[in-house]
Amino acid sequence: MGNLAIKDDDIRESGSQMYLAKGLGVDAGFGCGDGGGRNLSHVGPGEGGGGGDNHDTEEYYRKMVVENPGNALFLGNYARYLYQSKQDLQGAEEYYSRAILVDPNDGEILSQYAKLLWELHQDKDRAMSYFERAVQAASEDSHVHAAYASFLWDVEGDEDEEEGYYSNIPPLFNNGTMASAATA
């Protein structure tokens, strides 16, 4: 029900099938700019992918994390699930940090963790540090760069509001006539 079998004539192995877990990020377009590229491409028939049944999905992730506590992919995917599907930010923080301990050079996980830190704690310095590590670790990953740019845009907007940025712009019109933009 929740799995989608795809047969492709271009696959050279005879009788090969690929299974995609529907609703787990492959087709859901999860945020963080990753397009779901890493989400559970390993899931086979009958594993997870409850077709919208979040209880089955969560049980599948828990099982995979228990069976593979040193696997950054499982830890990161479970963290992403907690963050995006369950809105459990504290739980997601725990599993992202565990994934980073397992693989401190995974740019995607570093980037997602940085985004979470910013959203959950508004800790600009910590988030910036993790985004910078993510960009170094995944210098070719446009999704990591886009997430970092979005963060910088967000931080700049917050700083502009705090400093009264728009109140410092001189008026262009003064008593019905255009004021000079040049100063002597």
From TrEMBL:
<protein>
    <submittedName>
        <fullName>TPR transcription factor</fullName>
    </submittedName>
</protein>
<dbReference type="InterPro" id="IPR011990">
    <property type="entry name" value="TPR-like_helical_dom_sf"/>
</dbReference>
<dbReference type="Pfam" id="PF14559">
    <property type="entry name" value="TPR_19"/>
</dbReference>
